[in-house]
Structure formats: C-alpha cells, structure tokens
Design brief:
Among the domains are: 41 residues, no CATH class; 118 residues, Sandwich (Substrate Binding Domain Of DNAk, Chain A, domain 1). It is α+β, with helices and mostly antiparallel strands. The strands form two sheets. It has a four-stranded antiparallel sheet with strand order 2-1-4-5, with no helix packed on it. Strands 3-6-7-8 form a four-stranded antiparallel sheet. Strand 4 and strand 5 form a beta hairpin.
C-alpha cells in the first residue's frame, strides 16, 4: 500500500473514498504487497489450516440473471404451460461478498439460455455472460424421468462470483428421484445351520421308522408333502438421479 500511495491518482481515489486530506504512509511498498498477498491466500486456501483472516470485499454492483428458452416456443403452448419459462431475478447484491457461491433449483423442461447483467448504482446495465444449457428436454423426457412414481425433474444451476468480481456458471444438472422396484431376496442359510437341520430330520425319520405304523394308513403323496412356492416380495424406493449438463471444470 505504501508504494501505491506514491501514485498520484491512487492517492486521490483513496482520499475521496476515506474523505481525508492527508494519508499516512507507514509501510514499505514491497512489504505491503507481501502482507496483502498473504492475507488473500490465507483467506482463500483450503490446503492449509491457518487462522481465519476476515478479509472481505463486496461487489460494486447487483447481478441480475435472465433465463429464457434456448429455442423460441409456440405461444399457444406457453399460455397453457405449468412452467414459467421466463425468469428474471437478482442473484447477487452489493450486500453480498466476493468469493461466494449460490445455487438455484427450478422447474424447467426445455433447453435454456442463461444471461447475466451487472446493474450499476447509476442504473446502467452491463452484459456479463451468456451460457447455453442443453440436454434438459432430452433428460426430462427420458424413460426414468417419466416413470410413474418418479419426482418432477428440477434444473440446478450453481454460480460463483469470484474475488476478481467475475461471474461463472460452475455447474448445471437435472435432478430427480426415480422410483425403483426391486425383489426382496431371502438371506442365504449358513452351511452349519443346514447340516444341523439335516441331522434333525434324519433322527426324526429313524424315530418314525422304529415306531409301529397304524393300521389302514394311507401313503402321503409327494404333491401333498411339497411346500407351496412362495410369491416373490418387492420393495419400492426413490433413488436420486443427477445428470450433468455442462462439462466439468
């Protein structure tokens, strides 16, 4: 900071912002840059555990996001649609901090265009970015998404406003829960338990053979002794499904 104050224009801007007539320079320019870089690195790093340095900066403007269908839709379909395909909202405000991330989830079943604009304090609008998000319609109309019992697909968009005040769409995906029906299989019987049951059955047969058979006894058919087959049992559960729409960074 000390070195920067020696630049006349920088000194004027700081005086205007702080409303001071004189500025005190008490740091060496090289030291000031080293300290500042260290603070920024400590505040941003996830590789090392250091004492938190609460160094924050707010955006200079609000950021508004506009979402539109990527391909123009028929007006008749738009009037009867349950989804609002035109969405305008303020994503970041000047009361937020740089370096934060935000995620929005919305109902949408067609490919979309995401546009972002900076709204300056004087009302001026500045275009920031355009991002085409495709494969939404294909995924929303897939067999898994259309299956009875599955939840309504949602589009999830993640944004980051980094410390350089650059806005990025970091992730876009379609999410829903698919209803899956699976058969409940009985647990396998351990070999020791099976051998024990066989021995018990053998002892019981020997005891029956040793006993006197009652008169007029009729033999039991194999059909009567066979146990009836059990009906398979099923369970239903909702399984989360995520389908990325943008290349991973």
């Amino acid at each position: 900071m000390g070195g920067g104050l020696r630049i006349p224009r920088v000194s004027e801007l700081i005086k205007e912002t702080t409303q001071k007539n004189e500025l005190m320079v008490h740091l060496n320019g090289d030291e000031a840059m080293s300290f500042g870089s260290s603070f920024i690195a400590a505040n941003s790093s996830s590789q090392y555990k250091v004492r938190k340095v609460y160094l924050t900066q707010r955006p200079l403007f609000d950021i508004q996001v506009k979402i539109r269908p990527l391909v123009e839709l028929d007006e008749a379909n738009l009037e009867n649609a349950e989804i609002s395909y035109t969405k305008d909202f303020t994503l970041f405000k000047t009361s937020d901090y740089l370096g934060i991330k935000k995620t929005i989830n919305l109902s949408y079943d067609v490919d979309m265009m995401v546009q972002a604009f900076a709204i300056h304090p004087d009302g001026r609008e500045e275009h920031l970015l355009d991002v085409s998000v495709k494969e939404i319609e294909k995924t929303a109309n897939s067999e898994a998404a259309k299956k009875e019992g599955s939840t309504v697909p949602k589009v999830s968009l993640s944004f980051e406003l980094n410390r350089s005040q650059i806005l990025k769409v970091t992730k876009a995906e379609v999410k829903f829960d698919e209803l899956v029906r699976t058969e409940i299989k009985p647990e396998p019987v351990k070999k020791a338990e099976t051998d024990e049951k066989k021995e018990e059955a053998t002892d019981a047969e020997e005891a029956i053979d040793a006993a006197e058979e009652p008169e007029n006894s009729e033999p039991v058919s194999d059909e009567e002794t066979d146990a009836a087959p059990q009906e398979p049992e099923y369970k239903e559960e909702l399984v989360p499904r995520n389908f990325p729409l943008l290349p991973a960074e």
